[in-house]
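Give me the fold.
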Amino acid sequence: MITDMDTTIQTGIRISRTLYDRLKRNAKREKRSLNNYITGILESATAPAIPRLVRSEYEPDDELRELGRVIGDIPAEKIERDPRLKSILGQ
């Protein structure tokens, strides 16, 4: 989702009434604003392909672990959400 509200812009697009109605219904069903719903769809469709690693299938070497120790402070919630960081940091 949008991470830096200062970088958002307002734009206009042309879509069919049928598509608009369907998007509006789906947003309402998910209890989200239409803007938030469409932004989420666009974010998902354009997100970079970062492979999700299964920790049991990925074991970093000692050099990568050492790099993880010198990186500095990384918020615990970020580490918890990213199995690669957990593995690199030896957690």
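The CA atoms of residues 28 and 34 lie 8 Å apart.
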